[in-house]
Write a structure and sequence with these properties.
By secondary structure, the chain is mainly β. The chain is elongated, with a radius of gyration of 29 Å. The longest helix is centred in the first third of the chain and has 7 residues. Strands 3, 7, 9, 11, 12, 14 and 15 form a seven-stranded mixed beta sheet that branches. About 10% of the residues lie in helices and about 50% in strands. It starts with a helix and ends with a helix.
Length: about 210
């Protein structure tokens, strides 16, 4: 035990100490249409007392393993930290808080964008906008907008396409959404050739 070590080493007037972050060891499953949006550990750090040679090897204080199942509301649990020989954590236990949010489905209208097209070539799709359907937690529902998404088709994909319709790809979406899908998943299209105007000689001479 730690007290026995200090009794055997009276020359150590000050206990070697350090501060580390506690980390939870848990397996959790949320209820239907719910997800665990965040897990917090309180306090966010604990003091470690140990012999100097041992102290430098301790980077994290782990909790005892625990399980939550079918979680549908915010939960709080007081958990002891795992004991290590010759080591003392202060405090020796922490609170683990699981924040739960509910999924909702959201539909947005997003324009189809051509990516990497040569100058003078423009992608036209029919329709020009498609629906992007996602699942998002209620706390982020209002903040997610069509500007967070990019439904794009690269010029290389168009050139390599052998079908009359062009398959669509979601190039960008926020991390807070899941089960992202686009409808329709393919569109009619054409590549429009536009005239690229060149500077006149008069402007060049100026």
């Amino acid at each position: 035990m730690l007290s026995e070590w200090y009794s055997a080493h009276p020359e150590e007037h000050i206990r070697p100490q350090n501060r580390v972050s506690p980390e939870y060891l848990t397996h959790n499953t949320a209820g239907r249409q719910y997800y665990v949006s965040d897990i917090q550990v309180i306090p966010d750090s604990v003091v470690v007392y140990a012999p100097q040679g041992v102290l430098n090897t301790i980077l994290t204080a782990y909790t005892q393993p625990f399980h939550w199942t079918n979680v549908t509301d915010t939960l709080k649990k007081h958990i002891n930290l795992q004991k290590l020989h010759g080591v003392k954590f202060v405090p020796s236990s922490v609170d683990v808080v699981a924040c739960v949010d509910m999924y909702s489905e959201k539909t947005l209208e997003v324009p189809v964008v051509g990516i990497g097209f040569p100058k003078g070539k423009v992608l036209r799709t029919f329709p020009s906008k498609v629906q992007v359907i996602v699942q998002v937690g209620l706390k982020n529902f209002k903040s997610v907008t069509e500007n967070d998404f990019l439904v794009g088709v690269s010029y290389a994909d168009v050139i390599g396409n052998k079908s009359e319709k062009l398959p669509l790809t979601i190039k960008k979406h926020p991390d807070v959404v899941s089960h992202v899908r686009v409808t329709p998943s393919s569109v009619d299209y054409l590549i429009e050739q536009q005239t690229v105007s060149e500077p006149s000689k008069e402007k060049e001479s100026e």
